[in-house]
Design brief:
The chain is an alpha/beta fold. The protein contains 11 helices and 14 strands. The protein binds D-glutamic acid. The site of D-glutamic acid has 13 residues, from loops.
């Protein structure tokens, strides 16, 4: 009888020990929230080898269950913020997403956030969050170039790497990032460079922040631009964003699209100019007229690398323009939208374009 009692108490002690080790391990694993917005990563196609598919058809729970090893590296919680193709991304989703990210990262029991997103406008959303998230905790966007049903789908690997990076303490304080195709890219210079390749995202001016290798981040640079807790922009009380349009320049470009933007009530216009932000005379005059009407104008460039500088062929001070420096037209639009929530002064806006 004593032997039986000794064995019973031994097994009870063993079970208690195992449970406490598991719960201790669960407590030591970081908690990563996965917020889903749609995109190809949540896409489904009729054929595993064909190219046609519909994005935004797979739920966040399906995405997570397709990567079972996630539970080895983090406690995963999930929310479906929306389920759209990111070509339809809009101000309301941006504001909802940024407010939810800030709310979650304000909780002590949340260590990081991963956002699944379409690739079409991922660079714009990443930069908007880079300027509006008020936390040092990792925020990582992830997408895919192939739908979940395709042979060689890149989504599951990208999701695993994004969570592994987000779960690593080294990822704190780096600004908003994108993790795809084994690379860690900064929101400060994020550009989609190819319409079909899985290695489409690059940081063409600054180079990647680092690489994912063997499930671990290897950082090779940090961002020199202001971001997250060092950003002066705050959207927590905003229910809408100022309207900013982009106008492309090309040979023989007229004032047509500038006039349309002014007519539509734009508060800001980004010119995607030729070379170093240069403009046809017709465009330059139309943009100066817009400035006279109180509309902020930023000179950016249709060229992918190199800065759009002040002190070149156009006299910005005379025209009341600001130069975008290393921000392409799409990041310039995001930055000007946020700048206009604080000021219309072109010199103050110029400061912001040198710092963010
Ligand atoms: N519909 C596009 C989007 O959601 C697909 C592109 C992708 O996610 O790779 O951005």
């Amino acid at each position: 009888m004593n032997t039986f009692k000794n064995k019973r108490s031994f097994f009870l002690a063993l079970i208690t020990f195992v449970i406490s080790v598991c719960s201790l391990h669960a407590q030591t694993k970081p908690t990563v929230y996965v917020l889903a917005t749609g995109g190809t990563i949540a896409g489904k196609g009729a054929s595993a080898t064909g190219s046609s598919y519909h994005s935004g058809e797979v739920t966040v729970d399906d995405l997570i269950s397709a990567v079972p090893s996630l539970s080895d590296i983090a406690n995963i919680k999930a929310e479906q913020v929306t389920n759209i193709g990111s070509q339809d991304m809009n101000d309301q989703v941006w504001l909802k997403l940024s407010k939810r990210v800030n709310e979650l990262l304000n909780q002590n029991d949340v260590n990081a956030i991963v956002i699944t997103h379409g690739t079409d406008t991922q660079e714009e959303t990443a930069y908007f969050l880079n300027l509006t998230v008020k936390s040092n905790k990792p925020v990582i966007l992830v997408g895919s170039m192939r739908p979940s049903t395709a042979i060689g789908a890149d989504g599951p690997r990208n999701i695993y790497n994004a969570v592994a990076c987000a779960a690593d303490p080294a990822a704190a304080g780096k600004g908003v990032m994108v993790v795809m195709d084994d690379r860690i890219l900064g929101a400060d210079d994020l550009t989609k460079t190819n319409t079909i390749s899985v290695s489409t995202f690059q940081n063409p001016n600054y180079g990647p922040l680092g690489y994912m290798y063997n499930g671990k981040p290897i950082f090779t640079r940090t961002s020199l631009k202001r971001h997250t807790i060092n950003s002066e922009f705050d959207i927590h009380n905003l229910s809408s964003l100022p309207r900013v349009e982009i106008v492309l320049s090309y040979s023989n470009a007229t004032s047509l699209f500038v006039d349309a933007a002014v007519e539509a009530g734009a508060q800001g216009i980004i010119s995607a100019g030729v070379d170093n932000g240069n403009l046809t005379t017709a465009l330059e005059n139309a943009l100066n007229n817009a400035v006279q009407k109180g509309i902020a104008v930023i000179r950016s460039s249709r060229i992918m690398t190199g800065p759009t500088t002040q002190w070149d062929e156009i006299d910005d001070d005379k025209q009341g323009f600001s130069a975008s420096w290393f921000n392409n037209p799409y990041r310039s639009r995001v930055l000007l939208m946020l700048a206009l929530t604080k000021t219309k002064d072109y010199k103050e806006i110029q400061r912001m374009f040198t710092e963010y």
